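Exam revision sheet. Question 4 asks you to relate a sequence to its structure. Input first:
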Amino acid sequence: MNVRCFLKVFGLILLTGCTVLLALTYRVLSESLGSAHFPVECGLVFGAAVHRTDDPGPGIIRRTATAARLLREGSVERLIFTGGKGDASNDSEAEVMRAVAMRQGIDPDLITLEEQSTSTWENLVYSRPLVADCQSIVGISDGYHLARIRYLADLQGWGTLPTFPADNPPNGEFLFRSVIREIAAMLYYMVLIPKSELSTFPIHRDILS
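Answer key, structure tokens:
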């Protein structure tokens, strides 16, 4: 391969890569505002970091406070908190979210826990049986997380999962790092999931249709 041909191929690869990254950045940002129409029956609240002392991290506080507000306003009827135990905590993310919600006056009878999951993919897999009787669902998380939730829900056959962003988004530096992480995660799932995890779980179309 001569130099001119190599430069053409390299330029094409570079252009393709930049186009993909720009498209994913646009997708993450454009879907950060959510897509939900209320009222809905079930709010599926995605977990976040729990500190070593089992105290809720900022993400859990944001997401749970938003879910509690929607419940008090009558926009949702009940909540499913999804998230298992991390390496640094004794309590699951779901347990910590329930405690936060109860401190905000939410009736624990209106809360269901999913405590097996350790990733967004697993959040959706293990929550699926818990939302089987829901007539309508909204996924609740930080805005930067919503594009991945919708993409993975579609991969798993949920149909188009409506989403809603947590109130009080994080500061600029954390948000920037989170968007970069989400772009990397989207690339990971787009490239690797069809060959590995996707075949691990049964796909049944379309629970939200």
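Marking note for examiners. Helices lie at 3-30, 58-73, 93-103, 120-127, 146-155, 172-192.
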